[in-house]
Every structure is written in C-alpha cells, then in structure tokens.
Amino acid sequence: MHRVAVLAVPAVKPFDLSMPSTLLGAARSGGHPSYEVTVCTATPGTVGASGGIDVVIRHGLEAVAAADTVIVPSTASRHGAEPAALDALREAAAAGKRVASICSGAFVLAQAGLLDGRVATTHWALAEEMQRAFPSVRVDADRLFAEDGPVITGAGSAAGIDLCLHLISSDYGAAVANAAARAAVVTPVRHGGQAQFVQTPLPARTDSPLDAARLWALQHLDQPISLHQLAGQAKVSVRTLTRRFTDETGVTPFQWLLQQRLLRARELLETTDLTVDQVAGRSGLGSGESLRQHLSRQIGMTPAAYRAAFHRPSVKTGQRPPGPVPT
C-alpha cells in the first residue's frame, strides 16, 4: 500500500483537492487497492477554498510525515503559504519522499525551496509570475508536467489528471494506469512533454474526421501506418491531416503514433509472456532493438527491466489486451 498525503493550502481549489483521491482511488494492482490517500492541512477543521466553498479536513501534518508521496493541489496562496506547511514539505523532501504539485501548488513547493535549481511547470498563465518570484527555478510552461528527480510539478487542473496517471504508471505500470483512466472515464496517459494547450482545443463533442483516423490507427498499431493512410481514413489531404492533427492533439501524427505504440508495448510487457521482439512487432515498433531504444529514451528502462518491475500476467500468452481508447 502506497501512502499519499494531499496537502491542502488555503484557499485550495476543490476540484484539484479531490483529484488525487479520485484518480489514485481508481487504481487497482493485482485486484487490491494500491493507494491510501489522506487529505490533510496545517490546521485541521474548516478550510477556505476557492469559489466560495469551505471544506472540512480532519487530518493534520502528521499525514505528511507518514506518507510516501505528498501532493499539493492548486491554491490562492501563491506567495503566503503557512510556515508549518512549508516546514512539513521540507522535512518530507529531506526524508526522500516524492513530492508533487498541481497547477499553482508549484508556488508552494517553490516557497519551500524544493524547486531551486529544478525544472518545474505550472499553469501557463502563471509561468512568468513564477519565474519572476523564484528566479532559481527553471520554469518550463510548455509541458503538461515536469519530473525532476523526486519532485513532479503539473500544469493546469486537467494536467493534474495526467500527473496522477503518471504516478500510477511509475508505481504500478501502464496497464494499471490505463485501467484507472478507463475507470475514471478520462484520457489515457499523456506524456509530460506534450504542450499545455493547442491552437484549436477540441469541443466537448466533435465531428472531426480525424477521430475515425485515430481509432483506425489504434486498431492497426501492429502494422506500418503512413500519413497517406491516415489522410485516407480521415478523407482529407496529407497537408490538412498534419495541420489539423497538430491543432487537435498538440503533437504531430508520427509523435502520436509513437506514444500509442509505446503504450501498447508497455501493456504487452506487463500482461503477456511474449518475447521482446514479439512485443515490438505487435506494437508496430519493428524490432526488439527499436523498442529498447524508444523505451529507454522515454522512461529510462529496458524492456527486460520494465517487465521485471511491472509484469502481472492477466491474459493468455498471445492474446492482445484492450488497447488505449482514442483521444
């Protein structure tokens, strides 16, 4: 059981405060709960929140001392966090605990000195303010989340979902993270290097012809996929496909395909006994050497090391587990 403390710093944002409990609570490893999440604050009781909402938090900073991971959700206290909370964060970091933040929660980590000399991110609209206030922090506003050693900072509220899924993936593997995403009905794992926003964000409902092309691609990841094929599925020109794909997803078609192939490969490594070459073939990465190079570049692990860490047989050898849903 991995213990997580969610440290609320008034005035906390309710959506971000509840996010870790929702996403981490959806994670199950081997059929058992994987996280014990405790919401805490410096002074237990009624805590002010944004939007005219008050929340009641029963646990104090002892939860931070007992946790393996500490998450600070967004707060209006970007420059005036409680000294006791800052001290608790410093002690947690000194003890080697993993510390993370969502949105403006990064300002709290910066106030505690935990981001000095590190790459960090926050909501793009707050990036310049953060850089001015904390010049020793290397602020990168063009990413969903930034991981620098044991400290992870997330961008806006929705990127907190990506951060939580990344934590699950790091702790229990891609299959568990994708299962948690499906349970919470959210987009599967996106990589931290993806841009915070795209030029033309998708509406809640879309009739984009690229949806059909992406779904087709997910069903044919074990085969070579060209831009001409994707354009044909979307019934647009290659030029239009490339432009609209980047506008809608924030990445190029080839970058998106590589992300999906690596997710498929990780799930196959976790849930089957296929050889590395077979995993590479079924995920469309060609050879075992290609898979090794891409996986090492993405997460710093070889396929063998990844399988040793996350292998949990759940399907028969040779049977393809459910792939990620289309984005």
Widest beta sheet: strand line-up = 4-1-7-8-12-11
Largest sheet data: 6 strands, mixed
Count of DSSP H/I helices: 14
Rounded average pLDDT: 87
Q: Strand pairing plus helix content: what structural class? A: alpha/beta
Number of DSSP strands?
A: 12
CATH superfamily of the largest domain: Class I glutamine amidotransferase (GATase) domain
Global geometry:
globular
CATH class of the largest domain: Alpha Beta
Written as H for each helix and E for each strand, in order along the chain, the element string is EHEEEEEHEHEHEHEEEHHHHHHHHH
Fraction of residues in β-strands: 5-15%
The number of domains: 2
The CATH architecture category of the largest domain equals: 3-Layer(aba) Sandwich
Overview of the structural elements:
The protein has 327 residues and is of the alpha/beta class. The protein folds into two domains: 2-184, Rossmann fold; 207-327, Homeodomain-like (Arc Repressor Mutant, subunit A), CATH 1.10.10. Helices cover 44% and strands 14% of the residues. The protein is built from 14 helices and twelve strands. A six-stranded mixed beta sheet has the order 4-1-7-8-12-11, sandwiched between helices. The chain is globular, with a radius of gyration of 21 Å. The model is unreliable at 197-205 and 315-327 (pLDDT under 50).
